[in-house]
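Input chain follows. Return structure tokens only.
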Amino acid sequence: MSKFPDGPFDGVVCLWALMDIPDAQATLASVARVLRPEGWFVMCVTHPCFYSPESSDVVDDNGVAVREVRNYFKESFWVSNTSNPKSVRAKVEAYHRTMSAYLNAITDAGLVLERTGEPQDVDAVTGPVAHSRPTPLTFVVRCRKA
């Protein structure tokens, strides 16, 4: 974003990309730089608490799908070992970061956290989707430049 001057944008959106960028802190600093005062930023990443290098969906002894997460605090570069080799996560490598790493990078960049979200699998008409994921796939954040 070095081609942009300071402060020309009312808002910036980064959907499903920040976890693929090696230097999230520098990226967020650039986002803050190109926002005008009171400008907004929205990001969406694969949920860092549940989708990490050593996590997987498993079925417990009662036949219930659960998410098993190991070594959450180990930040690393990884490729998903998903059961669907055609999925984006199986083809695109990512950088696992903890939730606090994302939130601290946001505040370190001078952005103020406004809202977070962890969307569920929900149908607009019928509500929660049966047999949906046991944990949120997505972590969404909205912040504002002070």
